[in-house]
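REQUEST FORM: STRUCTURE PREDICTION
Request ID: SP-0412
Submitted by: Lab K.M.
Chain count: 1
Length (residues): 110
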Amino acid sequence: MTGQATTLLLALAVVDDAGDLPRLLPAGHATWCAGFAAFRSEVTGRSEGLSDAELADWCAQAGAPWLIGRTRGEAVAELAFALWECTPASIAYTEAAERAAELGICLVDE
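STATUS: Completed
RESULT:
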C-alpha cells in the first residue's frame, strides 16, 4: 500500500469535525478497499512458493487457521485479511468508521 493512502487513512482517523466525516468516509472506504486488494496480492504472491504445511503455519501464526474444507485460495484470502487488519492504515480506518457510527454517520443510506 502506498504511503499516500496510509497517510489519508491516518488523517481520517483524527478528523475532529463530525461534519467532515460524511464527506471523507467514502474516500477512506475506497482507499481501504484498494489497500486491501494490493495487500492481498502481495500475500498471494508470497504464499505461492510455500507448501500447504508452511501456508497453514503462517495462517495459524496470523490467527487465521486453515480450516478443514477450505481451499488454498480461501486460506490465503483469510490470511491476507487477518494480516491487513493489523496494519496502521486498516486500524485507522476502522477507528474512523466506528467513531462515525457512534455519531450516526454511515456509508450506506438507510
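NOTES: The chain has five helices and no strands.
Reviewed by: T.R.
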